[in-house]
Amino acid sequence: MLDSTVPTQGNQSDQAVPFQQLLEAQSGLILLISPHLTLIGASDAYLREAFLTREHIMGRHLFDVFPDNPNTPELTSSASLRASIERAIATRKPDKMDVMRYDIQDPGKAGGFFERYWTSTNTPVYNSQGELVCILHETKNISDDLKTKAQLEESRVKEQAALAQAEQQRLRLDRFFDQAPAACAMLEGPTFIYRVINSSYYQLFPGRELLDLPLFEALPELRHQPVYDIIHEVYKTGVTYEGKEVLIPVARYEGQPAEDIYWNFIYQALLDAEGKVNGILIFALDVTAFVAARQQVESSAASLHSMNLGLEEVIKRRTFELEQAQAEAERQSKRLQSLFMSAPAAICILNGSDLVYELVNPAYAAFFPERQLLGKPILKALPEIEGNPVYKTFRDVYETGRTHEEKEMYIPFARPDGEMEDRYFRYILQARYNEQNQIDGVVVFALEVTEQVQARKAVEASEQQLQKANKEFGIANQQLIYINKDLDNFIYTASHDLKAPISNIEMLMSELLFELSEGSLANPEVRRIFNMIQGSVFRFRKTIASLTEISKLQKEELNRQEHVVVTEVVREVELDLEKMIAEYGAQIETDVADCATMAFSEKNLRSILYNLLSNGIKYSHPDRKPQVKVSCGQVNGFQVLQVKDNGLGLAPAQKNKLFTMFKRFHDHVEGSGVGLYMVKRIVENAGGRIEVESELGVGTTFSVYFSK
């Protein structure tokens, strides 16, 4: 079609464009094409755009210079350009082409092409005789514009998708927040206004108005409690606060008195777009029942312990059994407390009909530390539950949407070593709904209550044992009363009946002394035997006196107390021992400022100090002067009186027999062996105790514990 209107070669020469240089200088992208579709001119701008030189294109056929891209056979770029030129010639009018992809060759890579998009206009040029001279091809590279538009469109699509996804996540989060079995609330601003409250939080305070009210206006009883300062500190610093078993008295109904409620709770700061704190997220759990269970265990343990006080050797076996029961109860209490000290809630989300773990928080993962949960169906992660009723509850919740709650479900699980382990759980299962309000998963809120169950069983066992022990203690107590009466009668009878024979022996010794001649008395052997008999009589009298003191001690009123000034008693004892102190060259150091007064019998306190001080001086080391220090302090609810010396000391085997009646370890010092026995009885009768630390050759420290 083009060739039919092309002038002769001579005419073409006559019609040569006189404005060649003007064409080349044009800023637009222009090609000059002959009727035979050879290139006869081009602007410099076009050559730069197409990576061409004038020498390379002049006189060459249009489609030899601009071939189709063989890598895109589906495109018909050259055919479209040819059709446009033919339309322009046929109509003798400019033909404007729509946006067209026409790739250009890459001069730096053989067979390579650059992707390009163009808008072009083909205009036929005629001479004065109406003959076609050439076609003016004007074009514009719009590749960058199209890419920009495409990127903008892609960005817009992604933005819309992101917004839709964000909205879906928001709806899902709202559902999860509201359906969460734990109590959650969002507080806004520095006055902590309730803006969002889930149903579990409402259940904590069913009779109170909360929404859109400041926290301390809705619950004014909290204003003077520690949580007031805690939540303000979280809002000020942004640092999360976690409370464990905190007692917060609060009223569940308006106008009702506050109840003592124990809480596990988390205060977490909410941040605005600039990262500044603008609110508080509350996560709370009422653990009053758990605390009460533990306190019951501790109370039972305390009762068992108190029954042990004051019992003698005859009931040590029963005491040991009760101590074992107490230790077991305390161990159960510690295990239960360990559970409460974990995260406030264990939460997981199971997705789809296979109940695949989609989310597992650390508290839930801690239930199964050796197992991989995320991404696994529940039966693969926890195969033990397939035959357990718990799995049926999961299926029922997923299929019906009805919430299910278990207070104490028995579920045995395999330990890492393969052994089955009995475990108990309290849990709530709720269906999760997608944006189409269809069930697409299950939300699990769980607490392991194995320790609580075991603690309850321990309480029941302890109560039974306590009842049994009460009965046995009554019998043992009666036996001790009879034994003490018999002991008192024996001591009284022995001390009374032995006085007469001793007096007779002394009288006979006097008569014998009178009857012996002076020669006999001068005999050293006679004198030695006579002195030995007198020493034996003296010691016998001293033993009888000690027995009398013990008998008096048994009959004394144990609860008779008076406010005693300790320094005065120490000073009086030092005066009583003045002769002994001087004889041994002893040094007495006193520091009782921490115990100015003591609620105790003054007579008994003087007896305790006299025995301990005199022992510290009498049993001094031969290589050094005796040094005795008397001090007093406060230790765990007791006033502790200490007497420390640098004397002979004791071997470890001797310490266990130290407080035995008539027991002595050093015969070179006079004594009856009842002093320390009496000290121990005085202290224990008053509800205290005495302890001793000693090192052979170094010294001894007595610590006397007096109840306040």
Shape: elongated
- How many helices? The count is 23
The name CATH uses for the topology of the largest domain is Heat Shock Protein 90
Hey, roughly how much beta strand do the residues contain?
Answer: 15-25%
Q: What's the CATH C level of the largest domain?
A: Alpha Beta
Outline:
By secondary structure, the chain is of the alpha+beta class.
Characterization of the model:
The protein is 45% helix and 23% strand. The chain is an alpha+beta fold. Strands 1, 2, 3, 4, 7 and 8 form a six-stranded antiparallel β-sheet that branches. A five-stranded antiparallel β-sheet has the order 10-9-13-12-11. The radius of gyration is 53 Å and the shape is elongated. The N and C termini lie far apart (126 Å).
Q: Which helices and strands occur, and which strands form pairs?
A:
Layout (H helix, E strand, L loop, with lengths): L8 H6 L5 H5 L4 E5 L5 E4 L1 H6 L4 H4 L4 H4 L11 H15 L3 E2 L3 E2 L2 E2 L7 E2 L2 E10 L5 E10 L1 H37 L3 E6 L4 E5 L1 H6 L10 H4 L7 H12 L3 E7 L14 E10 L5 E10 L1 H21 L7 H25 L5 E6 L4 E5 L1 H4 L12 H4 L7 H12 L3 E7 L2 E2 L5 E2 L2 E10 L5 E10 L1 H66 L2 H5 L1 H32 L6 E4 H11 L1 H7 L2 E5 L5 E4 L1 H17 L8 E9 L2 E8 L6 H4 L19 H11 L3 E7 L3 E9 L1
Parallel strand pairs: 22-24
Antiparallel strand pairs: 1-2, 1-8, 3-7, 4-7, 5-6, 7-8, 9-10, 9-13, 11-12, 12-13, 14-15, 14-20, 16-19, 17-18, 19-20, 21-23, 24-25, 25-27, 26-27
Helix pairs in contact: 11-12, 11-16, 12-16, 16-18, 19-21, 21-23
